[in-house]
């Protein structure tokens, strides 16, 4: 029972946050946006339209009604992923269709690298915290701090310089070779191209997760129930496994969830460095051309992605913490 | 036959700021079925002794002296033998049941863990025994499927007691078991501890700063100050007729209604306990003592005879050697 | 004996009073000096902190140097007969870029810009976060709930997505970048400050002060804020590190001020001119290593301060 209440509560918060963010988006993309989106689109698409026809399009796009009504219909549009037509980049195409093809590519990259970073970071963090100041801990601490201080695009460029441009182990950019391959060799080609961006994203965030898990474990190791477990005669590795780690994971989950926003921000620059045709690269192109329709979609989708990821983190937390399950 | 024999125990913590001598030469023994109360202010070293008996301190801590549990030299135990002796020879009831239980594990599992670690029963048998233990401390057995946050402070402390009895130890160390509880709950828990100790014939080391509690529970009483014992003897005698000025002050801080001594205003003791790294010369208590004389600044008192079955570390007691022979 | 809340700030200690020929203000100043002295003593013992401090002093020197000197090498009106895209040499210690300008000069100039943007943005973020956090923590639960919802929104938001939009709309001016970074990074500080205020608020001397009739402003200024200063300061140092990283990301995307080239902008120019494939690693590495060093410097100092100021960490 407690779980249901907790999750409903989190879902409610998610919804409120979503409404707040979409309202912000409304302010940014309808109220404050400079210029006339219809005119911009018309110019980019090369269509020669007179004032009447422009007004007609404005009416179709719902831009000629008073703001409060626009607000309501705007919310509906955003929630159904109706982002309108791209104004500059691809005037013939709807923004949604531009997105879906790239989403999968970005999603594979982000999800796999985040999982890897969490897994490695957490495991190393447990080991490092347990054998505090040991060789693994010290090496991991220093490398974590250096990785943290490095902007992810710098890390990506270093990898390109070393592994691609010099050693030629991996391609320099893109998602697949210009001459498309088929079947299995297509997939190995894709993996080959994804390797460096994946490595960049994983290493960029593994340090943070390491530091968080280690810190959390050290906190827990000072608690009295750990001393009690030892006093009962429990072996060290079971003290760690059954008492320390399950408790240390809880604040770690919370802190890891906070970094999802940063990971999505990092993906944008990494995709740029590798010219990886994902959503991040798309947003950079849209930025360069000031295509606000696409930017709007990027904004809303990335927020929704982070909110979903946070919700999954909340689910995991509920599963692991009996205080939530049985409030 | 003594269950616990401690001789000249010295415990020193090593910290970044230097060595901290928390316990500076403590000796006592506890017989089967006997309750020894250990009292003193925070920082006097009493909890350190509790941790030292089961060697729970961090590896950097220096423990010297003699520490024997049922004849076994604790300080010489191999890690394997130490793990075996823990909980079966002696167990601990910690203070602050707030954080002494693993929040994400059922309390039944935590009790069963103690039993299973020592291979004393199968899983099913351990579960049964856990339920029985809970009943012994006044909790319904079905509560073993509960998590710590579903219990009140008093109930958690009962769980701690049940857990401490799980492997039928010979000695139970109670480290401030009632400090974090409300007064009414305190009384219940104390009654429970007393009856269990009596029924099971346990030897008990009862550590607290609350002297009034100790008088009822203990057979013998030892008062600690600045890492050493300054008075020891039969519990009620020590409390009602203290020989050491510190004991007197400590007792006066817990006045009893009806006792003529406390008829007028309650008295406290000025000053603070000394920093273990800066212990005063001579008698460590002399800066706060209202009966200090010049000799107290230089003479380091030992536990001298202060009556029948009573010893105190003060120059004023009957058994103290004459001052001329002590001042060198 | 674990009774302390999640994060505690050390209590402001009662002063040992010298003979009273001094005014209260002088006494207070003496006390502050003593606290600072003690803090410095502890900081000195942290190897990590001292190395970080050394790095920061070095780059601060570089930035100050760039204010007074270094102009000549950057002046575009002086036609450079120098080599283009040349590797490091005696004459050009860090090599040259595509226009023949010395990378060393550009990097020195970039120090001033990057550091200034980072510090200013962090200042805005700190002020916003502290104000909001204090308001939420101190005021009634309604204020708290609303402010915390808003804080959560900003905490969850992928800041770069928002920053890109703002920069696209409002321009690539130097000051706009500072404001944008400040506006998108205050949430962490707000959460921290609020937690601190909540724990300090419960302390007895606050209750006593209010019983004596102290106004909210008095309680906040005289009692709560001094307790928070150390933790806020440590947090601000870490915020500066994040601000510098954020600025580099924005500049790399091309949103930096073209008239004030920060390190991020240098990297962007290098990248867009194909420095990677042309193997002109010096053009990329000089600004990159500088960013890493400066951020490391702030992070190390911040962690060292955190260790001193946050008793929970100290006990380990």
Q: Would you mind describing this structure in some detail?
A:
- The complex is a heterotrimer of chains A (about 325), B (about 325) and C (about 325).
- Chain A folds into two domains: about 1-80, no CATH class; about 100-325, MetI-like (MetI-like fold), CATH 1.10.3720.
- Chain A is built from 14 helices and no strands.
- Chain A has helices at about 1-30, 35-45, 50-60, 65-80, 95-130, 135-150, 150-165, 185-220, 225-230, 235-260, 260-275, 280-290, 290-320, 320-325.
- Chain B has helices at about 45-55, 80-85, 105-115, 125-135, 155-165, 185-200, 210-215, 235-240, 245-250, 325; strands at about 1-15, 20-30, 35-40, 60-70, 70-75, 90-95, 170-175, 205-210, 220-225, 230-235, 305, 310.
- Chain B is an alpha/beta fold and about 325 residues long.
- In chain B, helix 3 (about 105-115) crosses helix 4, helix 3 packs parallel to helix 5 (about 155-165) and helix 4 crosses helix 5.
- Helix content of chain B is about 30%, strand content about 25%.
- Chain B is built from ten helices and twelve strands.
- In chain B, the strands form two sheets. In chain B, strands 6-7-8-3-9-10-12-11 form an eight-stranded mixed β-sheet, sandwiched between helices.
- Chain B has a domain at about 5-90 and about 165-265: P-loop containing nucleotide triphosphate hydrolases (Rossmann fold), CATH 3.40.50.
- Chain C has a single domain, classed as MetI-like fold.
- Chain C has helices at about 25-45, 45-70, 70-75, 105-140, 140-155, 160-170, 175-185, 185-200, 205-210, 215-250, 265-270, 280-310, 310-315.
- In chain C, helix 2 (about 45-70) crosses helix 4 (about 105-140).
- The two termini of chain C are about 15 Å apart.
- Classes of the chains: A mainly alpha (about 325), B alpha/beta (about 325), C mainly alpha (about 325).
- Chains in contact: A-B, A-C, B-C.
- Chains A and C meet through helix 1, helix 6, helix 7, helix 8 and helix 11 of A and helix 5, helix 6, helix 10, helix 11 and helix 12 of C.
List the helices and strands and how they pair.
The complex is a heterotrimer of chains A (327), B (328) and C (316).
Chain A: H1 2-31, H2 37-45, H3 51-60, H4 67-79, H5 95-130, H6 135-149, H7 152-166, H8 183-221, H9 224-231, H10 236-258, H11 260-274, H12 279-289, H13 292-320, H14 322-325
Helix pairs in contact in A: 1-4, 1-13, 5-6, 5-8, 6-8, 7-8, 7-11, 8-10, 8-11, 9-10, 10-13, 11-12, 12-13
Chain B: E1 2-15, E2 18-31, E3 35-39, H1 46-53, E4 62-69, E5 72-73, H2 79-85, E6 90-93, H3 107-117, H4 123-136, H5 153-165, E7 171-175, H6 183-200, E8 203-208, H7 211-217, E9 220-225, E10 228-234, H8 235-240, H9 245-252, E11 304-305, E12 310-312, H10 323-326
Parallel strand pairs in B: 3-8, 3-9, 6-7, 7-8
Antiparallel strand pairs in B: 1-2, 1-4, 4-5, 9-10, 10-12, 11-12
Helix pairs in contact in B: 3-4, 3-5, 4-5, 5-6
Chain C: H1 24-44, H2 47-68, H3 71-74, H4 103-138, H5 141-156, H6 159-170, H7 174-184, H8 187-201, H9 204-211, H10 216-252, H11 263-272, H12 281-309, H13 311-314
Helix pairs in contact in C: 2-4, 2-12, 4-5, 4-7, 4-8, 4-10, 4-12, 5-8, 6-7, 7-10, 8-10, 10-11, 10-12, 11-12
